[in-house]
């Protein structure tokens, strides 16, 4: 695991973390969190494509399903949780199904409901790629978040800062 302070000296001082602007602490922390998320996503794209051969958006669907029971989730719930339009999600699910990574089935008693679940192939791929994916996330966060940025984000969840 990368040392979080390893790249801190390379970072410019974070004006948002100083608290001298117009934003309240919570909004300042949220903006820092968004910047960190963007850095992680940018680095993950290549690793996800290389290891899983799926798009980043398809990867998010796989991750969401990986945290669910084997019976899966309804497509409407996946769209809600990922903040994606249902039509876009339908295309992504079709691509994942074509790759043998998810299954789709009608929900009993609801002719319009469709439930999506991971296949064993997808579970194997995620398990095999998990170390590389976790390392990518850790390194991306360590690269963009120095002590000032971490302190500002901890301000968003002060109860976690002491844990």
From TrEMBL:
Domain called HTH marR-type: residue spans: 26-162
Record-level GO BP terms: response to stress
UniProt superkingdom: Bacteria
SUPFAM superfamilies: Winged helix' DNA-binding domain
Region forming the signal peptide: none
InterPro entries linked: HTH_MarR-typ, MarR/SlyA-like, WH-like_DNA-bd_sf, WH_DNA-bd_sf
A molecular-function term among this protein's GO annotations: DNA-binding transcription factor activity
Protein name as catalogued: HTH marR-type domain-containing protein
């Amino acid at each position: 695991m990368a040392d979080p302070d390893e790249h801190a000296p390379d970072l410019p001082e974070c004006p948002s973390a100083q608290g001298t602007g117009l934003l309240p602490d919570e909004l300042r922390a949220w903006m820092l969190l968004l910047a960190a998320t963007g850095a992680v996503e940018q680095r993950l794209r290549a690793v996800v494509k290389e290891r899983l051969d799926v798009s980043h958006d398809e990867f998010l669907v796989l991750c969401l399903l990986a945290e669910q029971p084997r019976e899966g989730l309804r497509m409407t719930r996946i769209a809600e949780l990922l903040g994606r339009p249902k039509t876009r999600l339908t295309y992504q699910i079709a691509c994942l199904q074509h790759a043998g990574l998810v299954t789709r089935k009608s929900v009993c008693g609801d002719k319009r409901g469709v439930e999506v679940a991971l296949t064993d192939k997808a579970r194997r791929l995620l398990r095999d790629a998990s170390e590389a994916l976790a390392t990518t996330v850790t390194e991306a966060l360590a690269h963009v978040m120095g002590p000032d940025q971490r302190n500002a984000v901890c301000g968003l969840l002060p109860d976690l800062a002491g844990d």
